[in-house]
Amino acid sequence: MPNKRSGGGLSATQQAAKFLGVSVLSGAVLAGIALPAFGALGLAAKGSVESFDELPANLKTPPLSQRTTILDAKGSQIATVYSRDRTVVDLKNVSPYMQKAIVAIEDSRFYEHGAVDLKGVLRALNKNVQSSGVSEGASTLTQQLVKNVFVEEAGDDPTKVAQATQQTIGRKIKELKYAIQVEEELGKKKILENYLNITFFGEQAYGVEAASQRYFSTHAKDLTLPQAAMLAGIVQSPSRYDPVNDATEATKRRNTVLQRMAEVGDISEAEAAKAQKAPLGLKVKQPKNGCITAVKGASFFCKYVERVFLSDPVFGKTKEARAKLWNQGGLTIRTTLDPQSQKSVQASLKDHVYKSDKVAAASTLVEPGTGKILAMGQSKPYGYGKNETEYNYSVNASMGGSNFGFPTGSTFKPFLAAAALEEGRPANQMYSAPYSMQYPATVQTCSGSPWVNDRDYKLENESSTEKGPYDLKTAMAKSVNTYFVQMLADIGMCPVVKMTNALGVVQGNGDKVPEVPSSMTLGSTGLSPLTMASAYAAFASRGMYCTPIAIESITQTANGKKKSLEVPKSTCSRAMTEKTADTINTLLSGVIDSGTGQQAGLSGRDNAGKTGTTDSRKNAWFVGYTPNLSGAVWVGSATQKVEMNNITIGGVYHSQVYGGDTPGPIWRDAMTGALDGKDAPSFNLVNIPSSKKDKGDEDGNGDNNGGDDGNGDGFIGGLLTNGGTSSGSTGGDNNSTGGLGDLFQGQSNGNGNGGGRG
């Protein structure tokens, strides 16, 4: 039992101790007025608290973190993302009931006192002494606002949050000084507005607007008396008075607020009694946060936008600075995503590949001449459950994609052809192109040291009927492997390196394409659909390559003001002459007209493309374009362990999958819908005279010997890389580290992971 004075009162020492016990309520008030008194009681030991006068004069209020809204190119919402769900509103957009309710229950003398309510402090001190505990607080709304500013500034750092909320005299002294400043600078209405916007209302809702939406699916300006009273009651203890989890406690607390409003004259006793009888009337809206909630199947594109923001120096010099800006939010991000194109891509993927299939498909559409990403989707939805994935198969590893991308097969051959044309080779270039052959003894590289075929590596064409000589047009339509290896031996690898560099072609891990014949001709290196769609877009735009972009504009709202942020711009540069691009367009139109890509052809508009299939049918591609849209489709297994022989995909059985018969139709349907109602410009096609020695013409069948009916097993004659330039292993035996294990294939080492015909 505590020692009492005669007469039952507490001693002076006990009174002081009780006062200190409620220092969180009143200590800082007297600390600022009579700091020496604390020193006399041993409370201001050296280093324990700062001198009141030594504190900084101004409270640096951080912009309130808010939700960020991501829009498509037409202005429709794709998703909202936030670290704290908050929408800042002006006081005029907050119900008068809400304004009165929060003042009545939290600080009924708010309009009568300054930063500190001395009368309230004494009242609280008296009640707390009588109850031998802390039964009543004395912090004003202004002091609570300051404390919430400290918490907001701490963000999600648990150490900083603990420091911002610790019950110490030092913190209360800071709170007091800044509260005085805030009262002088802002005035009562602005303080109330800021308080209502910063306060936590439970259920992930920060600020009165988010709370109104969360609990009642309405705006703060439309809150009724019972609704406002319930929200005001939550503030004291969001967990205890959570109406979602404990309606009884929430109702009691609401009724307490209503009674207090009647006591201070904000409402009549009759109004209070009527409101107390009303049900809570919850209409809870579940929070929708993050790209997983994106509409139109745009979750992967949404995550791509987020990764662009967090990685591009235009949004901050450091990773930490960019993350801080992203978490602060309040951004309206208008993207390049075209809703018509996105809808078409998702519909096509859904029609042709089921999410439960053993393999997956990914597709990306890019606008030639601008680099704008118009659509991005895949067959397995974004998520963490069965038949879902968080990995974006359309992009490079740094942006959330596979470790190394996926071997592209013969879709790489147009890059080699473009390089040869740039070197001056004729458009009807002839090579003997036998059915099978050894790789050249040496092939020149950019480094000056030639690649050497020191193990007698050989390659074959898809079908034994494919025997040259062939010219370029026929070889491209048939996708003749030996032709393009002979072309590489002729020009060397350096021109191809220059071309792929100019087209932004890098491996999925960001490295350059290795200088080995299988990579430079037959697509043994893993690339992403976005990389391929962007590179082919340069053909469509007559040789101009534009780096891909996903963001059109960003508006930031902070402290009631809006400003535009700088965003990354596409960089366009000439990758090849118009003549070379026109020639490639003519060649690839032949692939769709009469070659391996006939099943992918579009009707009613010029279009061109190339098929690709890799060893053991582990990957199948179609990359194609019109003058105003470029798209890439990949089908395969992310682990590279599924061979697409005797397989059912999208309910359709395939004895063997080719680039033309599976990704081709996906591309066709996606492009058809995306281009519906759009202009149909024409290519600038060139005349490519056929060589009289071309086998494809001499046999009387022209280019129609190609197609997708070959009987080969997908062998494409890859070879080991030289000098250890590769990583990972063939097929799906991933040797990568970092916890991804079997999720994605290792990079091809060139041994049989090149490009089949399609």
Give a verbal description of the structure.
It is a single chain. The protein is α+β, with helices and mostly antiparallel strands and 758 residues long. The protein has 25 helices and 23 strands. The strands form eight sheets. It has a six-stranded antiparallel sheet with strand order 5-4-20-19-18-23. Strands 2-1-3-15-16 form a five-stranded mixed sheet, covered by helices on one side. Helix 2 crosses helix 8 (169-186), helix 4 (96-106) packs across helix 12 (247-263) and helix 12 packs antiparallel against helix 13. The model is unreliable at 1-52, 133-137 and 698-757 (pLDDT under 50).
Query: In which order are the strands of the major sheet placed?
Result: 5-4-20-19-18-23
Percent of residues in helices: 25-40%
* Major beta-sheet overview: 6 strands, antiparallel
Q: Residue-averaged pLDDT, rounded? A: 83
Number of helices: 25
Instruction: State the separation between the terminal residues, measured CA to CA.
Output: 91 Å
The helix/strand class is alpha+beta
| Share in β-strands | 5-15%
Indicate the overall shape. Answer: elongated
Uncertain ranges: 1-52, 133-137, 698-757
Please supply descriptive tags for the structure shown above.
758 residues, alpha+beta, six-stranded antiparallel sheet, 25 helices
Sum this structure up briefly.
With 758 residues, this protein is of the alpha+beta class. The protein is built from 25 helices and 23 strands.
Strand and helix layout:
Blueprint: H1 12-21, H2 23-33, H3 35-40, E1 68-71, E2 77-81, H4 96-106, H5 118-131, H6 141-154, H7 158-165, H8 169-186, H9 188-198, H10 208-216, H11 225-234, H12 247-263, H13 269-277, H14 299-311, H15 319-328, E3 331-335, H16 339-352, E4 360-366, E5 373-378, E6 406-407, H17 413-422, E7 430-431, E8 436-438, E9 442-443, E10 451-452, E11 458-460, E12 470-471, H18 472-478, H19 481-491, H20 494-502, H21 517-521, E13 526-527, H22 529-540, E14 544-546, E15 551-558, E16 561-565, E17 572-574, H23 578-594, E18 608-614, E19 619-626, E20 629-636, E21 645-649, E22 652-656, H24 663-675, H25 695-698, E23 755-756
Parallel strand pairs: 1-3
Antiparallel strand pairs: 1-2, 3-15, 4-5, 4-20, 6-13, 7-12, 8-11, 9-10, 14-17, 15-16, 18-19, 18-23, 19-20, 21-22
